[in-house]
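Usage

Read records sequentially. Each one opens with the input sequence:
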Amino acid sequence: MKETQSSQNISTKLQRIAKIAKENRDAPLTNLAHHIDIEWLREAFRRTRRAGASGVDGITAKQYEKDLEGNLQSLLDRAKSGTYRAPPVRRVHIPKGDGTQTRPIGIPTCEDKVLQRAVAMVLEAVYEQEFLDCSYGFRRGRSAHQAVESLRDAAMKMKGAWVVDVDISKFFDTIDHKQLQEILRKRIRDEQVLKKRPLPPPRLKHKYA
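and closes with the structure output:
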C-alpha cells in the first residue's frame, strides 16, 4: 500500500512523540496510548509485512483487508478496553546455515502483527532518541549496508583496523523478558502500551512455514 495523507499525519504524530521524548530524557513518558487510534492502526497495517504465512487462526492479510475498517475498529476497541489478548504464536523451524540445523521462528496472527507494529511505532519514536549515531541495528531508515560503509570509511581514515564479528548464540531464545520489561518501565509508564500480554505458544510442530 502506498503512502497516503493519513501516513503523513502519522509521521507528524511520530515527530511530536520523538520531540517530547528528546526533551524529557530523564522522565518516564505516561501518555502515549492515546496516539494509537484508527488512523494509527491503518498506517500500522500499511507498514506490516503481509506476504508471509498466516498465524494459528489461518487468516491471511488479504482476507483481513476485505473488512479492514471493521477489523481495525474491533481491534482498537479491544486494545483500549483491555480485553485484547494476543493469540498463541505458530512455531515453525526453518533451515539455518548449511541446513544441518534449524532456527525456530514464531508466526503471529495478522491482527496481532498489526497491533505489534502499532506499539512498535510508538516505541521506535521514543527510543530513537536514545541511540548513538554508530548504532544501525533494527533502526528505521538504517541498514546493514550503511553500517558496513561507515565501518569501511572509519578503517580507511585510520589506515587499517581490526574488525571483530560477534554473534550471540540463541540470544533471543534466552533473553530475560522480565528484565526487558523493567528496562521499558524506566522510560515508559503508560500501562495501556505495556499491558499487552501474549499467551504461551501452542505446542504445534511444523517443519517449515
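Summary fields computed downstream for this record:
- The mean pLDDT is 86.
- DSSP finds nine helices and two strands in the chain.
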